[in-house]
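Researcher: We're teaching a course module on how sequence relates to structure. For the next exercise, students receive a sequence and then see the predicted structure as tokens, so they can try to spot secondary structure elements on their own. Here is the exercise chain.
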Amino acid sequence: QVQLVESGGGSVQAGGSLRLSCVGIGHTTRSDCMAWFRQAPGKEREGVAGIYTGSSHTVYSDSVKGRFAISQDNAKTTLYLQMNDLKPEDTAMYYCSASKRYCRNGYPEGDNYWGQGTQVTVSS
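Model: And here is the predicted structure for the students to work with:
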């Protein structure tokens, strides 16, 4: 059984920074890719940043490219998202996800593992 536990969310002003963490409990080292997703009220969930755990190749959505950085620790049990130059439109619940079987363009696809989420609120 795999559990993903996110932390690091909070409230910041525009231009500020936050660092999200996602600790994987269980066999997350078997996941080929992990990613951060977000969902704002009334909007669909979107992929923000993904990483292939073997090669550490990363992918980003256009909306966060150049401002966010995804990374993993050497043990590949903790996933991070460094968020800089935050904007009000970054306000959302952020979720960590790990692949069970499939990855597509750097993001877990199908029946993935999910964390409970951590709220990020950016005020102008």
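Model: If you want an answer key for the exercise: The chain has a mean pLDDT of 94. The radius of gyration is 13 Å.
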